[in-house]
Amino acid sequence: MPPKNKNFTGREDLLTRLREGITGGKGGQVTAVVPHALHGLGGVGKTQLAVEYAYRYRSDYDLVWWVPAEQPGLARSTLAQLALEAPDLGVPDPATRGIEEAADRVLNALRRGEPYDRWLLIFDNADEPEEINDIVPRGGPGHVLVTSRNHRWESVVETLPVDVFAREESVAFLLRRVRRGLTGQDADRLAEALGDLPLALEQAGALQAETGMSVEEYLRLLEEHTGQVLDEGKPSEYPLSMTAAWALSVSSLRRRRPEAMELLRCCAFFGPEPIPRGVFARTDDPAVRPELRALLSAPLGLSRAISELGRYALVRIDDNRNIQVHRLIQALLREELGEEEQARMRAEVHALLAAYAPKDPSDAGEWPTYSELLAHLLPSRVVESRVPEVREFALATLNYLSASGNFRSANRYVDTMIRTWTRDATGPPELDVLRARHVQGNLRREIGQYEDAYQLDVSTLEQLNETVGPEHEFTLILHNSIGADLRARGDFVTAREHDERSLELHRRALGEANLRTLRAMNSLALDHGLTSDYRRSKELHEEAYERLLELADIPPVTRVIFWSGLARAVRLCGDYISAGDVGTDAYSFARQLGVDHPWTLRTARDLAIARLRAGEVEDALELARDVHGRCVRQFGLDNPDTLAAAVNLSNIQRTMGQTQDALTLVRDTMERYPRMYGEQHPFHHGCASNVAVLHRVLGDPETARGLNERSLAGLEAKLSRDHHYTLTVAVNLASDLAALGELESAVRLGRGTLRRLRALLGEDHPTTLAGAANLSADLLASGLKEEAEALRADTLDRYARTLTLDHRDAEVFLEGRHLDCDFDPPPI
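User: That's the sequence. What structure does it adopt?
Assistant: Structure tokens below.
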């Protein structure tokens, strides 16, 4: 909360009406179904009324939280910070789960009233109703208060108009503010001259308290300054009385503390939210005026200047000595400067912001600082700067928003930056624009807009090649993004070919031991896994991970990506026990990123699969349920990670005999896949085959057959017949045919599939053994006893040497039943 205004006076009728409205009237409900809005002219005291309400009725609330709401991204960040201040809400640290998810969780906890059912949220300066509509917790047990200048709130919620002071309130305020030498008659004359505007009265009271000038002198100067304002024709949306009162305070400050005046001018070009005290640090940047540089180099002088501004009521200073200037005062300060000087002052603010920004926006410990700076990004017009260091700061804020999971805000900011940076462009895009487009492509892919991401990245790569060449660091970075885009499109072979070229480019430009080269190698390892070359995938993952450990200062998330990739490759090669061991170590390490970090969840999902394959079914189910629940809460249903987690969970549910639950979940997932990936994507066909398995298990092999035939045709067209996904579906289709009594067709399909599996994966791979086990049962049922017994004996021997005869697959085989092969989508 902002500090309580010790000079607050009057407003009793407004406070009474506000209390009655917000609590549902005198009849009694302490629940607000809709938020209440305060609006009015700038400077009338909307914010101060909200502050007074919070302090006056704080004993009725367990929790009060103040949300600067002018910028939606900042509002979400402030809501997310409530997770740290109120740990009883049970919301993890936003540094570990991302801003958006933490904010959503906070709002859900408030709506439920757990553990607090007496809470008050105050959204200050919410000028656009639609921009904060999704973060106003309607329907909960607490209260919501909004302050705004926008009268459109009247059509959205109940509103309480706030006007200037009544005369008696003005007089009472001035007598309280100026404690010596002011009579009631003098206060009345001042109030008349200042139009009873609270902010103007505050300015007048502060000036008189500081200087001790007489009322007569003040009124004379006020009249002179009013004439000056009229003569100069300053464009202002604010009352003339406020402009004149402000001018008097500024004139006195300029005479008494000229250095404080220079600091105030600088503050006019920040946003209206609190300015971090650390921004005003010693600097040699020539963009900062010499007089301000001198002040910033003198700590005692700077402290005196800040205190002086507070005494004149030109700024508000919080407990951390952060500075906040009313938007009305900022506007008046800017209006007295010419365009050239305004541009110079903005450049000064940009330099201060850029210098204060932490160097690593991916460091979660620095996110609170970036959140403070974000409030000033757009108001200070940082995105309009062409200074390289300032552009770098703007790009760093994008990386902060992306790293913290605030994807919606990141998308808004990156769109604004690109639009601004290209507005007057006539030639090819600048490098900063191309870097911003790369971020834009990553954000699109993160939320599942794969085609948009691909088109963006391809276009950006072409322009980077032309602008800085194929071996520039940003060009190489984008190569990895293109590979991810191709994998997301299901073009696995094309992705592998692209990443082979990319790895060679990296090796030539950066050498073997560079982190970016190792990332390119890791991407190529993913490609080999998606094209069923699991041995080569494991070799590359192992090499990349071992080389990674030789480097210094490895980003933890990078280590998790490499480590989990290695665990997945080991599992895909059929070594489930080792995969579980490696995966457990990777997951244990990943948890330091936070249990809800995307890569922690992906590592956990892979580990659940490894545990299922190794026979640890109960542990696999518990982990899969946890991952799926977290993905739904954090990302929503239509998200790549949520869909993959749903497929994983349904496979384990089927194995546990929870077939109806599994069918409900995976059928819903199958219907969602095409909306994100398209009808012909391999992941959609793989998911459909999982649905088919469940239909057969539930006694409907005809429906299963239809689904598997369509999936087989789609996968064969997209990936070829000799792909693991295709052959997995073929194994399941043969089981469908056998269940329908079409044994001849089942045997024919089983023989061809087994031959291809042996060639692709080897004779001892678990999928190959499943194909052999099923074929031996179909051969026996078809009367081909000799061939069946020979195949059965060979398969039994291979199970004994690999998975062991205690493994679930071997037990199903020994019982003469068919094994079901399922699909789990890997990360791309």
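The first strand starts at residue 36 and ends at 39.
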